[in-house]
Amino acid sequence: MSGPTGLSGLPKAPDHVEPAPEWGRLDARMLVVRPLHEIVGFVPVLVALLVFGTGDAWRVLLSLAVIVLLVLRGLFSWLTTRYRISESQVELHSGLLSRKRKAVPRDRIRTADLTAKFGHRLFGLSAIRIGTGQHAKGKADGLLLDAVPVPEAERLRVVLLQRGVGHREAAVETAPAEARSTAIATLHRSWLRFAPLSLSGLLSIGAVIGVLVNAANEVDVRISRMAAVKEVVRWARESSLVLVVAVAIAVVLVLAVLGSLLKYVLQYAGYRLTRQADGTVRVTRGLLTTRSVSIEEKRLRGVQVGEPMLLRAGHGAKVSAVTTGLGKEQGGSLLLPPAPRAEAHRVVAEVLRLPEPPTSAELTRHPRRALARRLVRAVGAAVLVEAALLLTVAAWDWPLVLPLAWLVALPAAAWLGVDRYRRLGHALTERYLVSRTGSLDTKTVALQRDGIIGWRIRRTWFQRRTGLMTVTATTAAGRGAYSVPDIGEADGVALALDAVPGLLRPFAEPVSPESRPTPS
Predict the structure, then answer these.
(1) Spatial contact of 367 and 490, defined as CB atoms under 8 Å apart
(2) What's the whole-model pTM score?
C-alpha cells in the first residue's frame, strides 16, 4: 500500500469523503481470513491427535471435515453479504438460509471502531464495528463489517462519524495530515513493571491449563500416565511438605509473572492515545490483534482511575473513560493501561482539557461512623467463617489447624476495613463530582456535573441508626450510576444540591441538627 501513513502505519484517510450509495461486497480475502481465525482454535486438538493420538482415523477425518465446513461457511458468508452507506443510513444484508437485513440510521451512530486480528493484518484487512450505544439482553446493537481493506476502513470511519454537512465541512483541515492529531500518551517499556501487579497472570495460567486438559480429553490422553507427571508426583511424595509447598508457590509466581508480561504485551503493544482534529480521542493498541477506538469528546462525561491493591502498592494506576456509546464487550473505554500514577493523572488532565486533574483533588473525609460500618462488615465476615470452622471441627473431628490458621485473617480483615474507610472520600470541583471508594480495587471517578441527570438517595436501616446515607448520581454514560457511600445526611443532601443546582431542590427538605437521629 502506498500513500502517507498514520498511526501504526495505517494509511491516512482523505480530508473529505462521501458515502457510496451503491451496494458493496466484503473483500474476497475474507475467504481465507475468516476460516483462518476459526481454525486456530482447532490447532491444539489437531497437534494432540497427531502427537498423542491412538491412531483413530475417524477423529482425524472428523477434524478435517470441520475445517472444510469452516471454509465453506466463509465462502457462503462472502457470497451473501452486501453493505451500503447512504446519506441517511447504513444497510447490511447477510445470510443464506436465514436472510438478515439490518439498517442503522447514521444520526444514531456513536462509534466506528477498527479491529484487526492477526489474519486481518496478514492480508491488509480490518474489521469495522459500527455501534449505536444501545444494548439489549447483553448484546450491542450495531453492524460489523468483518473484512474490508485498511484504507477503506479508515475512510468509512471518517464517513460514519460525520454529523451532517456542517460537521463534514468543519472536518476539512487545511493543515498537513500529520498535524491533524496530537499525541497525549504512548507506551513506555518501563511500564512493563506494572504487568505482574495484577491477577491476569493467574487467570491466564488457568485458561491455558483448561485448554490443555480439554484437548487431552478430546484425544483420550491420560495426563496422569505421562512420564513427566509421574516423576513430579514421585518427587512430591518423597519430599517434605514445606519444600513441596515452597516449590509450588515459586512455580506459580514465575508462571504468573511470565503470563502477565505476555498478556500486557499482546494487549498494549503499540499503545497510543491521540486527540484528533474531528473532536475525538483515539486509542490504538494491540500486538497480534490491533484495536482502534475513537471516543467523541462531546460524549465524554468523565474518567475513572483504577488502582487495584497490587498496582497501587507499585504506585501505578489505569484510566478509563466514562462516556456514552461504548459497549463493555469492546473494551473501548480504556484510555491508559497500567502505568505510573503520575502519568495517569496527567492523562486525565490532558483528556479533560484541564490544567489540574480532578482525580487528584483533595477529598473530604466521611464521618467516623462509616469506619465502624466497614469494620463490622469486614471483621464480622471473618468471625462468622471462624465460627463455622470451629463447629465443623467439633462435628466432624477435623484437624484444629484449620480454625487456627483462619485466625490470621482477623487482623487482615480489620486492616481491610480501616483501609476501605481511609480511602473513602468525595470532592466537588468547578466542573466535576469526584468520588473514591474501595480498597482491594480502589476507583476514583470524576463525573461531569453537567452529565448528571438524576439522584438516588438510599438509607438502609443501619444507616438510619448512624445518620448516614448513600448518594448516587445517575448519568447516561459508563455504568449509569456512581455512588458516594456512607456520607453524613446533611452533607449528602448538600452535595447533591450543590453539584447540580435546581435538580434536587424541589424534593429537598432542610435537615436540622435536631431532626437527625442520634448515632447509636
Answers:
(1) no
(2) 0.81
